[in-house]
Design brief:
Elements (H helix, E strand, L loop, with lengths): L11 H19 L4 H15 L4 E8 L2 E8 L10 E3 L3 H9 L3 E3 L21 E9 L2 E10 L7 H20 L5 H12 L2 E4 L1 E4 L2 E8 L14 H24 L7 H14 L2 H12 L4 H17 L4 H22 L5 H4 L5 E5 L4 H5 L6 E6 L7 H9 L3 E3 L4 H4 L5 E5 L4 E4 L3 H22 L15 E6 L6 H6 L4 E5 L1 H5 L7 H15 L4 E4 L29 H7 L1 H14 L4 E6 L5 H20 L7 E8 L8 H4 L5 E4 L1 H8 L18 H16 L4 E3 L7 H9 L4 E4 L4 H8 L4 H13 L5 H11 L6
Parallel strand pairs: 9-10, 10-11, 11-12, 15-16, 15-22, 16-17, 17-18, 18-19, 19-20, 20-21
Antiparallel strand pairs: 1-2, 1-6, 2-3, 4-5, 5-6, 7-14, 8-12, 9-13, 13-14
Helix pairs in contact: 1-2, 1-4, 6-7, 6-8, 6-10, 7-10, 8-9, 9-10, 18-20, 19-20, 20-21, 25-27
The chain binds phosphoenolpyruvate (PEP) and magnesium ion.
Magnesium ion binds next to α23.
């Protein structure tokens, strides 16, 4: 890979110009002189090097940009000329944090003439912001008598100088960083973020980047060769990481991930990029500053290109540059390892379920993702934790900065960064309404979900962590219809041993009291991969969601299943154990899994330990093929559970964690509903209890559709229990069944629209 797709190619004169200035600036910075004297020398050095009659430095003081030093303007103006943020050319540069390069300064609409400076004879003007910790703390500018635009080489030299100045300014305490932080908020103002609701709810907190931005402390290099070596090593390490990622099963699930990885690799091996960083080091910067400098340049170029595809690629390069920075500066780890200090809204491109679980649940109030989809496991985990999630927010990381106050209104698929007072008031009102709704729902806890025509609907919850169990009592649900045992494996650094598993299952059963719990054996793989359980022998998997996962893995690694069986059987001593197997594709897999349990049961008896009072075996229907052999499977089962998350992805051949497909297929589609109805008919014929345990059952309209096709048992996210009970108590089953029969026989163009109107007319769905 030798192409350089982004950024200008620096030439040797740019490097030489920057190098000369930097060497001189380095001497100035190392000198013992007073800060003001240093600034006076700096403007002389820059002006002379760029052959400019004027060079001035404005710094932020008491909310204004004050002229601190100048060569070429009237000295009487120093500490006298002050510009507000947004005022004049200097104020405009600071407010937009952008470079200006003008042949004729007076022609610019923001030009504001300051007579005390004597600047009327100068025509050309170029200025760049001085940025410290992502905040603009000042402006450095040059002016020339001739009306000419400055060369790109000169602008680049000026930008490099601005980086060095930021260090000088910080070391000399010339600006108040707190003040700069406040100003930065005012600089950009409020921003509304639109996305896709992944988990409903309202929350507020400060923005925390899952992968924190790096703070660069040293800009000017002491030893250029040493810096070069540091960058070489960091590049090697980064390339190794990217190659490793590409060969890992969980990342190679096809579609967007592969595309992203391919782009990452392209950038990681891009010689143009590494050459530009090298040139920046040649000009006298440290490794960190050189990476940042090149990144700044690329960002600037990208701003001028109005192409959303390229903007996406820009994020990839930004990600990679951050990764390189983290490696070179040794600032590794996510925000979870640093700990949350206050209520936080997590900002990330995407997250894994295990990464989310690392956060302190008391402080993590919400999540905003650039990607994400409704049935991705991280979203399921967040839903179980009661954390609102907004996904698919475009250019998120460009719009929100670390520490920004955020109001997250996932109910309306919105968030506000740096909100105004009015926005806060509006949010508080919604929040209060939401609490009222919660209180109304809490009152439904002891209400039994019976339809108007007298049918009792079973409403269970899905769980997976010990912390989920109190939800059973809080919601008044009938039991746990799906306990995802793999969550314990996900939060653990090593494979949980039998004792640990037994303890957990016992605790789960104890906290459930006399309500039933259906345990599902581990469903590892797909987007739930474990570092300590890889299938390396056969190389990477191209499509892990359809690969070596769930029962397939468990039957092959039968010691894993044996250990889990023993733990579940022992934990259920004297009680009824209900266990089901995920991702069954053919009936023999059910037989094989059951045989493992029966073997362990016999062993337990032989050891004289108390066995469960009874063991009920169930299967999950997630693979469409199983629907064709229900006549063989159903007679073997005590119950069947329909996992509509996976079933949908396989029916539509649409990866459930691919954000591009997140909104494409609707659960209220005739294909899914007819398919589930077919299963329901077979289940009723064989008298096998059936539950739907996918995410769709937790939404009022979808649950209504399921009732209409014969489903009478749901297992859903705890937050969905009250709204679903509420809906159930208003519905007439005979009426919805007849309506569904009609719709599925002759599907309307949009079943969702049709059903929404139908349900609204009858007051079936709440707000
Ligand atoms: C499903 O696939 O619908 C299901 C409930 O299982 P999971 O979401 O854990 O894959
Ligand atoms: Mg599943």
């Amino acid at each position: 890979m030798t192409t350089a797709p982004l950024g200008p190619t620096s030439n040797s004169s740019a490097v030489a110009a920057a190098r000369t200035i930097l060497t001189r600036l380095h001497e100035v910075m190392a000198s013992r002189s007073h800060a003001q004297a240093k600034l006076n020398t700096v403007v002389e050095v820059i002006g002379a090097s760029l052959d400019s009659e004027v060079c001035s430095i404005y710094l932020l003081r008491e909310g204004m940009l004050e002229l601190f030093a100048t060569r070429g303007l009237a000295q009487e103006a120093v500490h006298v000329t002050r510009m507000a943020i947004g005022e004049g050319l200097v104020g405009t540069i600071a407010s937009r944090a952008e470079t200006l390069n003008l042949a004729e300064a007076t022609a610019h609409p923001d030009f504001s003439y300051r007579p005390e400076t004597g600047e009327d004879k100068f025509h050309s003007f170029a200025g760049v912001p001085i940025v410290r910790r992502e905040r603009c703390v000042g402006v450095v500018c040059v002016q020339h008598v001739d009306p000419r635009r400055y060369e790109e080489v000169e602008i680049e030299a000026l930008q490099t100088v601005a980086m060095v100045l930021s260090e000088l300014i910080a070391n000399a305490d010339l600006v108040d960083e707190e003040e700069a932080a406040g100003l930065a908020a005012a600089q950009t103002g409020p921003e509304q973020l639109r996305g896709l609701t992944l988990v409903k709810g309202l929350a507020s907190g400060v923005a925390v980047y899952h992968q924190p931005r790096i703070t660069i402390e040293h800009i000017v290099a002491e030893d250029t060769e040493a810096e070069r070596q540091r960058v070489y090593l960091a590049f090697d390490k980064m390339r190794e990481q990217i190659d490793r990622m590409a060969s890992q099963a969980e990342f190679g699930s096809g579609g967007e991930h592969e595309e992203v990885l391919e782009t990452y690799r392209m950038f990681a091996y891009d010689e143009g990029w590494s050459r530009r960083i090298n040139e920046a080091i040649d000009s006298g910067l440290t490794a960190e500053a050189a990476i940042e400098r090149v990144q700044q340049r690329t960002r600037m170029r990208m701003r001028q290109i109005d192409d959303p595809l390229l903007a996406d690629r820009m994020h990839d390069l930004e990600d990679l540059a951050n990764r390189l920075l983290r490696i070179v500066s040794g600032q590794l780890g996510t925000a979870a390892s640093a700990g949350l200090r206050q209520d936080a809204i997590l900002i990330a491109r995407n997250l894994g379920p295990a990464e989310l679980l690392e956060y302190d649940k008391r402080r993590l109030k919400g999540v905003i993702l650039e990607e994400g989809s409704l049935t991705a496991h991280v979203v399921i985990v967040a839903r179980a934790m009661g954390i609102p999630v907004l996904g698919r927010v475009k250019s998120l990381r460009g719009k929100v900065r670390e520490g920004d106050p955020i109001l997250l209104d996932a109910d309306s698929a919105l968030a506000f960064a740096r909100p105004t007072r009015d926005m806060m008031i509006g949010f508080d009102e919604r929040y209060a309404k939401n609490r009222e709704k919660q209180a109304k729902y809490a009152a439904l806890r002891d209400v039994v979900p019976i339809t108007l025509d007298g049918e009792r609907i079973a409403v269970n919850i899905n769980a997976g962590l010990r912390e989920d169990m109190p939800n059973l009592q809080l919601t008044g649900a009938d039991g746990v219809g799906l306990y995802r045992t793999e969550f314990q494996f996900l939060v653990s650094a090593t494979l949980p041993n039998r004792e640990r598993q037994t303890r957990l299952y016992r605790e789960v059963l104890e906290s459930a009291g006399n309500k039933p719990v259906v345990f599902r054996t581990v469903d590892i793989g797909g987007d739930k991969s474990l570092p300590y359980l890889r299938h390396d022998e056969d190389g990477e998997e191209e499509n892990p969601a359809m690969g070596w996962r769930a029962l397939r893995l468990a039957l092959e690694r039968d010691s894993l299943l044996k250990v889990q069986a023993r733990a579940l059987l022992e934990a259920s001593a004297g009680r009824v154990l209900q266990v089901m197997f995920p991702m069954i594709s053919e009936p023999w897999e059910f037989d094989a899994a059951k045989a493992v349990f029966e073997g362990q049961l016999a062993h337990l008896r032989k050891l004289g330990k108390t066995p469960p009072e009874a063991v009920k075996y169930g299967a999950m229907l997630e693979v469409p093929a199983l629907a064709e052999v229900l006549d063989i499977l159903l007679p073997k089962l005590s119950f069947l559970s329909i996992g509509t998350n996976d079933l949908t992805q396989f029916l539509f051949a649409a990866d459930r964690s691919n954000p591009k497909l997140a909104e494409r297929y609707d659960w209220l589609s005739p294909a899914i509903l007819r398919f589930v109805r077919r299963i329901a008919v077979a289940g009723h014929a064989h008298n096998v209890p059936m539950t739907v345990c996918g995410e769709m059952g937790g939404r009022q309209l979808e649950a209504l559709a399921l009732l209409g096709i014969g489903i009478r048992r749901l297992s859903i996210t705890p937050a969905g229990v009250a709204p679903i009970k509420d809906m159930v108590r208003r519905v007439n089953l005979a009426e919805i069944s007849a309506a569904m029969a009609g719709w599925l026989a002759h599907p309307p163009v949009s079943l969702r629209e049709e059903m929404t109107a139908w349900a609204a007319q009858r007051g079936l769905i709440g707000d």
